[in-house]
Amino acid sequence: MNTILLIFLALPLATVIISIALQKILKSPILVSAITFVVFLIIALIFNNFGLLVAAIAYGILSFLTAYIACILCKISSERASNCNNGCNDNCNCNEIENALPSGNNGNSGCMCRNYRRRR
Predict the structure, then answer these.
(1) pLDDT tens column, 56-103
(2) In sequence order, what are the residues at sequence separation of 6 or more whose Cβ sits closer than 8 angstroms to the Cβ of residue 100?
(3) Maximum CA pair distance of the chain?
(4) How far apart are CA 3 and CA 80, in angstroms?
(5) CA distance 77 to 116
(6) CB-based burial of residue 53 (10 Å sphere; 0-12 exposed, 13-18 middle, 19+ buried)?
(7) Of the candidates 11, 33, 79, 108, which lies 20 to 30 Å from 119 by C-alpha distance?
């Protein structure tokens, strides 16, 4: 029972978390999945178990999918941030933030988009 929980719950969850962290560091989904696959392959070879070899392949695929989704989300986030840096638009919620912040710098307040706009 403990082995089943380990294979179907703990290791996939750890694979997802480690894949996201490695993707943020390495910025390459293929490299992240290769590292994950090699680690699980070494574990499978140490324990000399064919079931772990199949699991290593599945975890490698899971790692690639997770890293690729994290890559896409980072690209979307950076595009949104670059749109915010080009000008405060409604996507940045700058008007709500500026209204909540006290004014400074002769009536200017800092926008979340890293731009300064004059309060209306």
Answers:
(1) 999 999 999 999 999 999 999 888 877 765 555 544 444 444 454 445
(2) none
(3) 71
(4) 43
(5) 21
(6) middle
(7) 79
